């Protein structure tokens, strides 16, 4: 699956900005910047990875800047970024 650069989300409180780019190597490479990474970093990464693999994205570089987003918001932002990056419409 071809990946282009794409972004979704904001840096507002309670949100997360997700940037997806083509990966230089195979796999999902997640770079997470979050003030709550010590407590919730593992869960945030899991939600990002599960959402992308569920959409068929297996190779991508992901940069996520979290500002306290809930899991549902993380899924929504990752989905929006993946749709923009792949051109695959998951809402049909």
Can you walk through the features of this model?
- There is one protein chain.
- This protein has 92 residues and is of the alpha+beta class.
- The protein has a single domain, classed as Ribosomal Protein S5, domain 2 (2-Layer Sandwich).
- The protein is 37% helix and 25% strand.
- It has 2 helices and 4 strands, in the order βββαβα.
- The protein has a 4-stranded mixed beta sheet, covered by helices on one side.
- Strand 1 and strand 2 form a beta hairpin.
- Helix 1 packs across helix 2.
- The longest helix is centred in the middle third of the chain and has 18 residues.
- The chain is globular, with a radius of gyration of 12 Å.
- The two termini are 19 Å apart.
- The mean pLDDT is 95.
Short structural description:
This protein is an alpha+beta fold and 92 residues long.
- Average pLDDT number: 95
CATH topology name, in short, is: Ribosomal Protein S5, domain 2
Q: Domains counted in the coordinates: how many? A: 1
Q: Unreliable segments (pLDDT under 50, ≥5 consecutive)?
A: none
Computed CA radius of gyration, to the nearest angstrom: 12 Å
- Percent of sequence in beta strands: 25-35%
The CATH architecture classification is 2-Layer Sandwich
Class per helix and strand makeup: alpha+beta
The arrangement of helices and strands along the chain is EEEHEH
Number of helices: 2
Q: Percent range for helical residues?
A: 25-40%
Count of strand segments: 4
Instruction: Please state the overall shape, judged from the principal axes of the Cα atoms.
Output: globular
Major sheet attributes: 4 strands, mixed
State the end-to-end distance.
Answer: 19 Å
CATH C-level name = Alpha Beta
Strand order of the largest sheet: 1-2-4-3
């Amino acid at each position: 699956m071809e990946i282009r650069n794409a972004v979704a989300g904001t840096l507002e409180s309670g949100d997360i900005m997700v940037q997806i780019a083509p990966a230089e190597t195979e796999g999902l490479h997640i770079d997470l910047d979050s003030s709550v990474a010590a407590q919730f970093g593992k869960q945030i990464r899991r939600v990002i990875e599960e959402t992308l693999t569920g959409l068929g994205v297996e190779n991508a570089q992901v940069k996520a800047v979290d500002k306290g987003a809930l899991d549902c918001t993380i899924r929504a932002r990752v989905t929006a970024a993946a749709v923009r990056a792949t051109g695959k419409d998951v809402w049909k």
